[in-house]
From TrEMBL:
Protein name: Serine hydrolase domain-containing protein
Keyword Aminoacyl-tRNA synthetase: no
Segments of skewed composition (Polar residues): 255-264
Lineage of the species this protein comes from: Bacteria, Bacillati, Actinomycetota, Actinomycetes, Kitasatosporales
PANTHER family: D-ALANYL-D-ALANINE CARBOXYPEPTIDASE, D-ALANYL-D-ALANINE-CARBOXYPEPTIDASE/ENDOPEPTIDASE AMPH
Length: 412
């Protein structure tokens, strides 16, 4: 079982496009470390190699930051902007897609710790009548089943018409606002994937509903609760929930997508600005590599949740082979690596931005990576390099992936 297979399953298929040879003429990876004595063996050489391999595969730029045993390392490869050639900066902001789900899950687990809801509550208790139709029944689905993707609720981003909006129609529809109720209605227009608790399927609808439940329980938006409970206590100064705003905070690079066309000769499109309401509680957050490391260290290290809720977070279910070798908890996946290390991780994909955040079980070794292109890349190789010291094979690293048609952008 390879990390490449696992992370492709989590990230989901992204639209494809070719990158010209001129695009591939970019700076090599650079890195700096804090707390490392001069002349000490460079333990991040494998990570550098894996980052450089992403550039050879056609991604414009890669940004990475790790924290281990009190030392911080940061590096980059390629560029943040193909026109100006600006390198990616440690403080750059980027959209984290479905890594947002981890933040949403933490809020619900904290609410359970406060006795304000139970993971065994039905969805219908908090959102009566919202999940109904075509076999969907919120009376038979629990909050826990939303968070671990065993609800069976159809994934609204898989809807063929919605795929057109976020794929070939992205240019025309990128600034439109989508409400949570609208997204749930798209999902319930389809039959469930399976009966609640009898299978596993990654569904963004689950976390849209989780955000709606947060608002019902607290009387505040899920964004307000994430800011109050996670962002401010941890001092995540680069992390924001933009709502319907298409703007990116400075500094930031350019996010390049291939979602507009399946033609491998199509030039990547600048998708930096978009209205992320179509992702909502499932994928709207903007962050930085440093903030993601701090968040994962606190979460997996047990500093955000009481012991009972920490156990719930890390109680996993089988993904039925859809994430081979991995098991899924409440917003985080437990993933085995080739060297025997297990990491808690989530990935996220949204137009022009693919993100990985991961931590060892003790929260002491964390890593965050971001790619500013969505048509190639291997997050599994980055994970293996950082946590196992395993550099990618030179032949595969230099080879551009096949450009076979794939599904358009989904939040994964």
């Amino acid at each position: 079982m390879t990390m490449r297979t696992i992370h492709r399953a989590v990230t989901g298929a992204l639209a494809t496009a070719a990158v010209t040879a001129a695009v591939l003429t970019v700076p090599a990876a650079a890195g700096t470390a804090d707390g490392t004595a001069a002349g000490r063996h460079d333990r991040h050489s494998a990570t550098r190699s894996a980052m450089e391999a992403q550039i050879r595969a056609g991604i414009p730029g890669v940004l990475g930051r790790t924290r281990d045993a009190g030392s911080t390392w940061q590096g980059s490869a390629g560029v943040a902007d193909l026109d100006t050639g600006r390198p990616r900066l440690p403080q750059d902001h980027f959209r984290i897609g479905s890594v947002s789900k981890v933040f949403t899950s933490v809020v619900l687990l904290q609410l359970e710790a406060e006795g304000r809801l139970s993971l065994d509550d039905s969805v219908d208790r908090w959102l009566p009548g919202v999940v109904r139709g075509n076999g969907h029944d919120g009376r038979k689905i629990t909050v826990r089943q939303l968070l671990n993707h065993t609800s069976g609720i159809y994934n609204y981003t898989a809807d063929p018409e919605f795929q057109k909006l976020i794929g070939p129609g992205f240019r025309e529809h990128r600034f439109e606002t989508h409400t949570p109720a609208e997204l749930v209605k798209i999902a319930t227009a389809h039959a469930p994937d399976f009966r609640p608790g009898e299978g596993w399927n990654y569904s963004n609808t689950n976390y849209i509903l989780a955000g709606m439940i947060t608002e019902k329980v607290t009387g505040h938006s899920y964004a307000t609760e994430i800011e109050r409970r996670v962002i401010r206590p941890l001092g995540l100064r680069g992390t924001t929930l933009p709502g319907t705003s298409p703007k990116m905070p400075d500094p930031h690079g350019t996010a390049y997508t291939s979602a507009l066309s399946q033609d491998p000769g199509t030039k990547p499109f600048d998708a930096t600005e978009l209205n992320p309401s179509w992702g909502g509680a499932a994928g709207e957050i903007i962050s930085t590599a440093g903030d993601l490391n701090r968040f994962y260290a606190a979460l997996i290290g047990g500093k955000l949740l009481p012991e009972a809720q920490q156990r719930e977070l890390q109680t996993t279910v089988s993904t039925g082979g859809k994430m081979p070798g991995a098991r899924y908890g409440l917003g985080v996946a437990e993933i085995p690596l080739s060297c025997g290390v297990r990491v808690w991780s989530h990935t996220g994909g949204i137009h022009g931005s693919v993100t990985l955040a991961a931590s060892t079980a003790d929260g002491k070794h964390t890593a965050a990576f971001n790619l500013n292109g969505d048509w190639a890349g291997d997050l599994g190789a980055l994970t293996e390099a950082e946590f196992c010291g395993k550099a990618p094979a030179s032949d595969s690293a230099a080879r551009t992936p096949d450009r076979a048609p794939q599904k358009v952008m989904t939040l994964r």
